[in-house]
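Let's sit down with a protein and look at its sequence and fold side by side. Once you have written the record down, we can walk along the chain together.
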Amino acid sequence: MTYSAMAKVQPRLNDKAKHATVPKVRLYVERPEEKHWFVHVGHVTDRGRWRTEPHAHPAYGQIIFVRGGRGVMNLEGSSVPFEGPCALLLPTECVHGLDYEVDVDRWVVTIEVAYLTQVNAKLHEFIELWAAPRMIPFPDSADAGEAFYSLIQRLKDEVESDAVGQVVGTEALLTTLLLILLREARLDQTGSENATRNDIRLVDRFRKLIDQHYRENLALQDYASMMAVSLVQLRAACASATEQSPTKMIHARIITEAKRDLIFGNMSVEQIAFGLGFADAAYFTRFFRREVGQAPSQFRSAARQ
């Protein structure tokens, strides 16, 4: 049974159920009136423990290079330990919190989402790199981490310069930085080895449409129509690039948001179900149990423990 068959009516939520469950954070940039920014590089050094609560960035992707120190990242409710040198890659809307331990030296590269999309178009593997949040460790030798550190310093200098070709220079350095991360990440290419560039880009467009409309219970044909492709083309591209069906990708996005609501929010299961487009909580509970293996209430209890 598809999701479309399960929920046909989306009731209007009351104000209590509408409230955001995860804080949405926008970047603070000094003197933003001076010029429009598309890449920002910041440096933070702490001599004590420092912690951020779970939050999401609505309009940009972020790379945190931990040059030294260690900590734990709360990633969508799961704990991911990290130790420098490493890079934490955080796509747009990914829910994360960070608990840094003593003597952490970190550089934060923030990229406006529209510009990131433009850079990603240079290499279809970049799209796969940003498809999920990642902790990317560097080799034990100091050379790799220091080379990455040097590149970030050059990127910061270029971003802040007024030299001729500053935009071109910034794009070149950012592309190099992403290429290093891509190679260090050693992504599992299973399922995308035979995918064409068009397949990758089509699936990327589909993911973005899912993000915009997953609460609306649209039929697959509606997505295909918005993309001006046939259902056959959409299914073939998803199978080639992700080894998943389009329906499975929609279900995965709904489950991701449901988990966020259950872990970080205080809405009831019924409110979460209505907010995700389900006609009643019973349908939602069966759907969640089938996809996750636990009832929503069981998942919430286990995750919060």
Summary: The CA atoms of residues 67 and 260 lie 30 Å apart.
